[in-house]
Sequence to fold (106 residues):
Amino acid sequence: MVMIETLSVREAREQLSGMLERFRRGDRTPVGVGSHRKTEAVMVPLAVFEELTAERTRALTSATGSLRAEGLEAGPEAEDIFDRWARGEITTAQMRQLIRDRHGVE
Fold:
């Protein structure tokens, strides 16, 4: 788990232009935001977000290739779930549960 500075919503609002300037200068340090300093969201430079989603896409491409090498196909519903995961729309745990549910696995 990465330790990050967490700002209150008020502090984040007040410091937003400064955070964006830090990101423009190449600072890649994530900044947490949340009520009562409990991290509820994280701001990162766009380049970091793109790297994270690209890594997920590479993992998905590798997994799909492994399936095909074994003569299997994921199917359109599973591919939709995988794509949602690769874009960061759902968590890994959610993706796994959706696939399990789709195949009736507990």
